[in-house]
Structure formats: C-alpha cells, structure tokens
Design goal:
By secondary structure, this protein is mainly beta. Helices cover about 10% and strands about 35% of the residues. The N and C termini lie far apart (about 55 Å).
Length: about 425
C-alpha cells in the first residue's frame, strides 16, 4: 500500500510519494480512511479490519491492526453490499444507489474503539433520494457529503449535501463535473488547526495595521480597458504569478472543419509577463466566420485562452480562461460591456493535468470485473422462471429498464 501527497499548490507533483508500506493487502477488496490515524479494510471474506497508522503525513510510523469486526455485524454487512463506502473521522458512510422502483440513500455509522463497547451502533439515514446512476460518495469535511453519478464519457456531475443533525439538505446540485472513480479527500485547510503563533482573541480580531487612506477625489482614474484586446492573468497553484508562459487565444463560437478534424480558429498568441498578465489585440482583419459570429453576438467575440506548463517534478499543468473582446466597429454598448467585464476578470490558476483527462480509461481485467457491482447484480438477477436474466435495454424516455423489444416470450421471432 502506497501513500501520496498533493503538492501542486507549491509547484510540486500532484502525487508526491510518501511511503510504500508493503505487506499483503490482496485479501482486501475495499480500503478507505477518514483521518484520525485509522484505516478501514473490508476483506473479500466479508470481515472488517481496522488499522492504526502513526505519523501518516511523514510516513515514518508503522501500521498496526487494532480491531477486527465480524462479517455478521450489521454495519459490516451494509458496507459489503454498498456501492461505495467512505469515512470522515469516526463516521463511516455507506451509499446504496437507487434501483428502478426505489431511490437510494446514504447511511451514517459511528465507529467506537472503546474496550468492551460495540464497534458500531445503529445507523441513521443522512441523505435520501439517491438516483440510479449515483455510485460514488465522499466527505471533504465534517457535515458535508458529495455524491457523483457515472456516465459513459466520465462527465459525472457532483452534488453536495450539508447538515449536522438528522437528514442533510441538498446544498448544490452542480459542485463540479468530470469526476469519476474513487475520491479520498482530506479536511480543508480552513478546518485544520491554527498556526502555533496565532493569538487568541475575544470577539473580532483588531486590525494589526492602520486602515488605508481613502483615495481623494482628485486622484487620476485608472486607464480604461481597451475592448479591442483580450486580456487576462495566469497564476500557479499557490497563487504566485505564472511568468513566461505561451498563451494561445482561440475563438469558441466558430470552428474551421477539415475532412477528418475540427480545429478552433486562432486569434493571436502572447507570452505572460512577470506578473502573469498577458494581452492579445484583435486582428486588423477578422476571419469571416469570426466576424459573422460576432455580429450574431451583438458585436462581442468570445474566445478561450490556453497556457501549458510543467513543474520541476515533471507534472504537466494547464490553465484556461474564457475571455471576450469587441472590435472598433462593434456597437458602443457592446464595447462598454466588454471593457467592464475585462476589469472585473479574476486571475486563472494552472491546474494539474491527470492521465484521465482526455484519455480512455484502462479496461478492467477478469478479476476486477468479477468483483464489480454489475457482475454481482447479474448473478443475483433471475427471470420469472428462476433462470438467467433476460436481455434488457434502457428506454430514452423512461428511467425504468424495459424488456428487450427484439425478444418475444423468451425467443427472437423469425423475420
């Protein structure tokens, strides 16, 4: 078992190795941790082993088994049959997706390691209405749960639920997209312990520096933004300026198509300055397709700016910023709106590029397929005669699985 840290915020690698603990972990089908120095491992035989790990951030400590919970325990049975299981501190969550005639739910189980006490009490339902495609969940911090469904192109959309007692409420239906696979999240920095030099205060903390003086009325106004230019700023993961990066600006409302591919229309290139800012002027003569798209958009030209970089450890980083400009021939209202939008535009961060972005996922082998939920569901699904399951197809107008239209009374009719 290997452990990693995300150091991209300081220019490091997305997966910085911490330690390879070794050992035989092949007897476990699912392993998860919610912090607190505990690792939960569900064996293929059904029992749950709990391990204690010392100094996980440095990898200098050892892993020791502290408890085994029998496969007959109701909580372990729920974990074994769940579509996903994760932890946040001493709280363990099990997610069961919905089926054709019933929505799914998320249950919360409290782990207790005290001597002589039951390892788990009774469960409480914390999220209801889980859909048929929701297969993954995780908690970025106490009182928060994210769930995400699965799609053929791995563009699953995550939803968030929050609450401290009883049922959690839906907070955001669309936290983020493109998420698939297992997600293991640590507590956010704002929930971590304060620094050692933090000073305790009663009420609001007093300002350490005097408030800045107000700008006088006779101060010169800042130079207005030229609406005929695309502008922006790129920063690294830790917020420092991304200097010396090549920028390409491409129109996004139109594409120039060839016989076998479709490419965006390039409007210009630049290199970021020392402070991460960049600027690309509109071409003197716009391509016909871009000019037509601008006319249909009230005179404004929508575009996307791309930058690519690489950390010292070889991690590829990418930045994207959606920008807008308007030529001198555009209406005055369009130029004013473009200039105002450019002044309010926030910097865009470079983010790590993972192998899963734009690449086809590796297909599971026979052993992985045998342990998948779909394989188990197929083994347990019987037709009305108690035999194997009949073929099914998914209707495009109904969420309920329908019988195969090409099967009549168990056989395919002759043409």
């Amino acid at each position: 078992m290997k452990t990693f840290k995300d150091n991209t915020a300081s220019g490091g690698s997305l997966l910085t190795p911490v330690r390879d603990y070794g050992g035989d972990w092949n007897t476990y089908g699912t392993i998860w941790s919610g912090g607190g120095g505990r690792i939960f491992a569900l064996s293929h035989a059904g029992s749950l082993d709990v391990f204690s790990v010392a100094s996980p951030s440095s990898g200098s400590g050892a892993i020791t088994k502290v408890k085994t919970v029998a496969a007959t325990n109701p909580a372990v049975i729920a974990m074994e049959s769940a579509n996903d299981v994760w932890a946040q501190g001493s709280k363990i969550y099990t997610l069961r997706r919905g089926i054709a005639d019933r929505l799914g739910e998320v249950k919360e189980w409290t782990y207790n390691e005290a001597a002589g006490a039951a390892p788990f009490g009774s469960a409480s339902v914390v999220v209801t209405g889980v859909g048929t495609k929701t297969l993954t969940g995780w908690s970025p911090g106490p009182g928060t749960i994210y769930t995400v469904g699965t799609t053929p192109d791995h563009s699953g959309v995550a939803s968030s639920y929050t609450g401290t007692t009883d049922l959690m409420e839906l907070a955001n239906r669309d936290v983020g997209g493109g998420i698939h696979g297992d997600v293991h999240a640590d507590v956010a920095a704002c929930l971590a312990s304060p620094p050692a030099d933090a000073k305790p205060v009663l009420g609001s903390a007093p300002p350490e520096e005097p408030a800045p003086q107000a700008v006088s009325d006779d101060s010169p106004d800042p130079a207005p933004q030229n609406p005929a230019e695309f502008t922006g700023k790129f920063t690294l993961g830790d917020g420092s300026p991304g200097a010396g990066l090549p920028v390409r600006v491409e129109a996004i409302d139109v594409t120039s198509e060839s016989s076998d591919e479709s490419e965006l229309t390039t409007l210009g290139t630049a290199v970021t300055a020392a402070d991460g800012t960049w600027k690309v002027a509109l071409p003197a003569t716009l391509p016909d397709d871009v000019r037509q798209a601008a006319a249909a958009n009230g005179g404004a030209i929508n575009a996307v700016a791309h930058v690519d970089g690489q950390t010292g450890s070889g991690q590829v980083m990418r930045g994207t910023d959606f920008v807008v400009a308007a030529p001198a021939s555009a209406p005055a209202t369009a130029r004013a709106l473009v200039a105002s939008a450019a002044e309010d535009d926030a910097p865009s961060k470079l983010r790590p590029v993972t192998d899963a972005m734009g690449q086809e996922s590796e297909q599971p082998n026979e052993v992985q397929t045998a342990y998948s939920w779909a394989s188990r569901d197929e083994l347990n699904s019987l037709d009305t005669l108690g035999e194997r399951a009949l073929p099914e197809y998914q209707s495009d107008t109904s969420g309920i699985p329908q019988g195969d239209p090409f099967i009549v009374k168990g056989s395919t009719p002759s043409p």
